[in-house]
């Protein structure tokens, strides 16, 4: 783990448990399935492997937890104008879904070329979608909407987002009492901070392992620098894991609480997507398969004899887009 200069203020377990109660009427307790029979032999005797299937959450990803917790905590007159956000895909669907649940309008700012399936899913839920030419202008548009009175729900940053995501970790601990390792993909860091806040406070012996695309290793660069940084260019098939910058709250928790962070290639993500489709009949987007890619390749030797939960966290990809991603480059073969 890496030291950070700012004080680390994790949300309390009592705050996370209160969020579980608050969100329970609106979200699913997603399945955790033991896949040891299919994948355990690849890691060696005595290894247990399980998937936390957050791709089966309403909206197709874990993002609903943080977005809804943020919206419910804003509450009252502060959300009367409606909800807005900037999103490459999954978070936009989540905010649109939150707005529909709460009877509010929603505006989602996307960057041109964003995941078409996610854009359609946000529109189906009644959100108005606005298109920006790049990430910087997208966040500028989001700021203008906030200035006009819309409640901005950040894609990954802040205590309410972390607390919402932390409810996933509480479920994992209940579903897999023998867990000693969790593997998660990092985009902005919202899910990783949630697992850190829940699993690490429940048992600090649990290892938290994280992966980033090598073409969008923003958190790795930030940890190396000892502060949040921006990258001039990111390039990866996992659009949901490709923010150009990190922010202080999520950076602070990730830098202090991750036991190891590695990068993975697009080929490794394609390989994990193929494993999920061929062996488990799961059609998963690249970012949703990233944690499995980490388990199958860079973390492989580390998992032998351990009890590991792998986050499978996003399924918002159309079949044709899946085919296009798989055809666009090589896929690693693991098994």
Automatic annotation (TrEMBL):
PROSITE patterns: DEHYDRATASE_SER_THR
Domain named Tryptophan synthase beta chain-like PALP: residues: 25-314
Cofactor(s) annotated in UniProt: pyridoxal 5'-phosphate
Coiled coil residues, start to end: none
Domain of life, per lineage: Bacteria
InterPro entries xrefs: Ser/Thr_Dehydratase, Ser/Thr_deHydtase_PyrdxlP-BS, TrpB-like_PALP
Keywords: Lyase, Pyridoxal phosphate
Protein name in the entry: Pyridoxal-phosphate dependent enzyme
Organism for this UniProt entry: Pacificimonas pallii
